[in-house]
Amino acid sequence: MRLGRSRRRAVSARVGHVAVLFMLGLAPQPSPVRILAESIPGTVPPEFAADLLIRAADSMAAAKEPGDWRADLYEQAFQLARSAPVRLPRYLWPAVKLDALSLQVRAFNGLLDLRRDRALELAGTIEVRIPALTCRDAMAANAAAGAFDVARHSYDLLERQVLSVHSSMQLAAAFEAILAADLSPSQSRTLLTALTVTMWSLNDDDVSFSEALGPTWAAVKHAVASSDERSFADFMLDAFRSYLVLHLSGERCAVRSLGIAGPSAENDILSDVDETLLSHDRLRLSPKERTASRRIVSANATSSRDAAFSGDDTGLWKSRISRSLIQQVEALRAHKQSGRPIDDTRPPGWAEQLSHVYARMSTWTRSDEPSVDDYLRERAILLETMVDVIPSGPDRLRALGDLVVFLKSDGRQVYSANVWASRLRAVIDTCRNSPVEWDWLLRALLDSGDPVMRLYAQLEQLPGA
Questions:
Q1: Per residue in 136-149, is it b (16+ CB within 10 Å) or e — as a string?
Q2: Domain regions of the chain by residue span
Q3: Of 95, 268, 411, 435, whose CB neighbour count within 10 A is largest?
């Protein structure tokens, strides 16, 4: 009897063990996008982690997952963005913006339709403090636009942002957000009045004023035209006129920073302002009001960390070997030749020219240039140009490989996260239309040993990507 009971217990245990294994086999396995998302936090710096999580949540693969799971990704990205070392967008041109504000705006936009109340709650924690600029500073991106785009979804958020305006870079976005928001007439008038009072005495730096002048005037003109009360329209025009005089007659930069509209564009704007003032029985700006009390002479200072990929080659190619190299690489741009295959635009001797370029680059060292920074910036431009001018085939794969290696090593050393990520994304986009290059590049990124490169490649491999 005891033996029978023992056997029954053993059989029962085996059946239970088999049942557990069977159930484990049937249990749904995590999807590739879930596995990827779980591997991101803690693996890479927070600004990259936030960007990758947002991209994962935006993907077609994530669209098949429950909304709460996607919402958690967006919220996690929003929180990670707080630790991004750069607080505000600095330049207009990088395609990938990894500053805290840009990342938080993207995370908010993703979360809004999934958890509106939570999205608005998080938006209430966004702080925008735009620093004053000097005549040495390069053009800054309009950091205010993203914050006001978020704020327009709630009167309380919009009021908070309007009352915090302290820079010319915020004025245009503030006016347009108020005009675009779904507000009652009394709410709109209250916010426009508060913003106009701020503008009346706002006297910040010339770089911010000059960069924002065109958009600010367009927004003020829009607000004036939208007003159904002449006295209120005149009130906004008077405030804008006061704002102009404070800046135009104050200290101004003798040489404008990179990207800021020059005197000709400014004169066109001020001429339009004068016409509008006259149409509202206001005085035109006098020559004295438009004349700076002092012009500040200062060398323009564009960040060398970002200049290599911004199109700013000023100060480069000083050595004979670097000038020779860029000329040789540009000479590789091919033209159609009669008698050659229709898809082969390389002229006779092209392969030999390419060999000469590689031979020359192998003897070029950092000591040939005035500084290591110059050498690295020039090398980045040369490598990107070679990818651009070399047709598909083994030679182009070699050029792509050289660029990937550079981005992994020296590119990390010399460029900001925004620029580095932008160039990596540009390389990825360059290869999308060629199955051979696409497979090669993804494998190169996966095998690079760089965790950010690997994760961006894994993101591209998601189903439906």
A1: ebbbbbbbbbbbbb
A2: 1-30, 32-114, 128-301, 308-460
A3: 411
Give backbone dihedrals phi and psi of 294, rounded to 5 degrees, phi first.
Answer: -160, 140
Residue 29 DSSP label: P
* Nearest by Cα to 325 from 299, 364, 380: 364
Whether residue 219 contacts residue 170, with contact meaning beta carbons closer than 8 Å, is answered with no
pLDDT tens digits, 73-122: 999 999 999 999 999 887 666 678 999 999 999 999 999 999 999 999 99
Q: CA-to-CA distance for 312 and 310, rounded, in angstroms?
A: 5
- Angle of helix 320-330 relative to helix 350-363, nearest 10 degrees, comes to 150
Q: List pLDDT tens digits, range 15-34.
A: 455 444 444 455 578 999 99
> Hey, which residues does 137 pair with through a beta bridge?
301
Burial (Cβ within 10 Å: 0-12, 13-18, ≥19) of residue 270: middle
Pick from 165, 170, 189: which is nearest to 179 by CA? 189
In the 3-class helix/strand/coil scheme, how is 109-153 assigned residue by residue? Answer: HHHHCCCHHHHHHHHCCCCCCCCCCCCCECCCCCCHHHHHHHHCC
Q: What is the dihedral of CA 456, 458, 459, 461, to 10 degrees?
A: 130
Q: Please report, in angstroms and rounded to a whole number, the separation of the first and last CA atoms in the chain.
A: 64
Give the integer Cα–Cα distance in Å for 25 and 22.
5
Distance between CA atoms of residues 278 and 218, nearest Å:
17
What residues does 253 pair with on adjacent strands? 296
Separation of alpha carbons 235 and 351, rounded Å: 69
As beta bridge partners, residue 252 has 295
How many angstroms separate the Cα of 211 from the Cα of each of 95, 110, 135? 20, 30, 12
Q: Provide the pLDDT for residue 303.
A: 47
